[in-house]
Each structure stands twice: as structure tokens, then as C-alpha cells.
Amino acid sequence: MDSMLDLAFVRDNLPAVEEMLRHRGMDPAVLKDFHQVDSERRRVITEAETLKARRNRASEDIAKLKKAGQDATAQINETKELREKIQEQEKAAEEMDARLREMLVSIPNMPHATVPVGHSAEENLEVRRWGTAPKFDFAPKPHWELGEQLGILDLERAVKLTGARFAVYWDVGARLERAIANFMLDLHTREHGYTEVLPPYLVNSESMYGTGQLPKFAADSFCVPHGDKDLWLIPTAEVPVTNLYRGETLDGARLPISLTAYTPCFRSEAGSYGKDVRGIIRQHQFQKVELVKFARPEDSYEQLEKLTRHAETVLQKLGLHYRVVTLCTGDMGPSSAKTYDIEVWLPGQQLFREISSCSNFEAFQARRANIRYKPERKAKSDFIHTLNGSALAVGRTWLAIIENYQQSDGSVLIPDALRSYVGVDRITPKRF
Length: 432
Description:
The chain is of the alpha+beta class.
């Protein structure tokens, strides 16, 4: 049975799973029938196996009787009755399977022991800070004002082209976006040892299920009907890159595998209207450089720390003040066992804003996508641990640079690390 948490684990640890649901702000009543349905499922499976054994014996008797030239009518009639009973039990088992699957699909991942218990972002735990906020002798502006004044960000024409929550970048603004992505990819491939991947931007429903976007987040995604099957615009490169190994068993000697991808991301942002309506914080389309890791279970938390540091390195090289927080149980994504958010300082808005989420999903996604690995010197394969993180969201890095490097004359300096990529040292006003 494909599920996020192992069926036997839920069966053996039901009180702990119910407590976890409460910590995540969910009603444990979703599991109120679990024991009854699970017991009934096991009963009908056992009954079906018993009936199959009887049918096999009857079939053997028929063969013997026919060989001896004797009448086997009674045994033949018995096998017909047994076949009908077996079909009834198997149908009942399928119904129980479906009910159990429905319950298990609604259960999020078990948080790691180090995750703080809490119900909202206010209860997230700050881990560390880097750098200091820039000081200005003038009132810093938000990126949407700067972008318009410099002629590099055009939200008005984007509305004309598509609608709200889309953006058009002009000239150095467009070049800066491309430069940030190239800088990140070069950093992660050359210094951090990731292999670059360019995946499709449309994926099938199996891929969306594998990483946990379906069925829970269908409303947050853009569905594209395609023949008799749906395709989905990717909400993050996590989906295609993680699913590269769906249904495969990897050689344990290859682990960890570290991949990076630069892709557009598409999100309908259902339920978020009214939030972050100014500027480019929350867009239907944005670009992101993603880091994805496949690790042995015993190494996955060490790999989470490495992945998070790799994302932080981007901000350090760009000279951007940030903090790292551990998400509490109530603020964490349902697939994650532990998540660090990296939040960059935005002086034009006087707040920290999430620019990356780095998560260890343990075996949660691997069980759904059936991604296994073969440990060295062991015959039996096991589920791999998957991890990912933004390193970073390109648009949010763009706006962080615009706000942090603004000057009193209205221009914006380009950070030293990006100047060779952009080709200029400063952005000055221009009209298009």
C-alpha cells in the first residue's frame, strides 16, 4: 500500500501519530476508524488466503479423481463456490485498502525530535543570524517603488499581458535576474559539488503525488489538461528532480546524490489573496534554483545541515543580512520531518522575509515515489531519504539586492559577486 507513513508504523504507534496531528494543528479524528478498518482488512485477507488454500486442495482432489476415472462433480462445485467467496473477500479487502489509503494520505510526516512544538510562525525558533542590516541616511524604499523608478520592474504591463501577480523585467533588471541564477548555479556546481539538471516544466500526476503536492495541494497548482491525462506546471523543481528516480533502486555506494536545477515555478497561490500584494514577493510565476539530495537515512540530517549552509553561502557572498529559523510543528509543510527557513532582511519593508526553505523529508516522499537504495553488503533494499531547498528563490534575491543596495540618488549598486555576470556596477534610471 503506497502511503507517506508506513502502515505498520501507524498501527504500532497510533497514540504518537495522533499526538503529532495535534501538534500540527490537525484533528486526530481522521484516524478514529483506523484500528477497526485495519483489523477488518487483515481479517478478510486472512480469510481469502484460507479459502485459496481450500480451493487448491479441492483442485488437487479433482485432478486425482479424474485420473482415477471417478466423479469429481462435488469438488468442482466446491471450487466454484470457493472462487465466489474468495472474490467477495478480495473485494472487501480492496474496499478496506481504499479506506486505509484515504486515512494514510491525510497524515503528514512525523516531525524530527528536534523540531519545536508550536502552532504558528510566531513559535518558530531562531537558530542564527549572519551580517548586519545596512544603515541608510535616508528612508529606504521598497523594491516595487525602486523597480518602477529605475525602469527595471514593470507590473502594470504584466497585468495587461496576463493578470495580477506577474512581472515584466526590463534591461538591467532582466539581466540581474539571469545573473543571479547563473551565479547560483556556478556556485553550487563548482564549489558545492552539485550536478546541474534541466528537467521538464510540465509533469504528470504521478510525479506530483510522489513529492506530496497531490492530492493536498491541487488547488495551489496549475493543471493543464492533456489528452486523457492531466499535466501540471511545476510548483518547484523539487517535483521533477526528486521524481527522476521514482520507481528506482539506487546503489548505496553512489549516495549522497546532489542535484541542482534552475526552473520557473508556477503557483496559483490559492487562499493567499490579500497577502503580499505589493511587488514581487508572491507571484504566480517566479524562477528558482533548487537543491535536491538523496541520502542514506543515517546521513540525512548531516546532509540537511550541509544543504542549508550551501543556501546561506549565496547570501553571504552577496553581502545580504539574514537569519535561519527552525519551523515549529504547526508551521512546517506536511511532507517535511524538519525544515529550516532562511529569511533575508528587506530594509524597504523593515522585516525579514523567507527566501529559502531547506527540508529533510526522510522516507516520506521516497515511500510515495518508491525510491529505494541498496546498502553496501546488504541484500535488502530500503527507502532512501530525500531533501531539498531553494538556493535561492531568484526573484526574492533580486528584490533583496534592490532594497539592500539602494543609494540616496535612487540608483542601486550591484554586489561585487555579481558584477562580472551583470556587466555593470550600478543600476540607474531608464525608461522603456
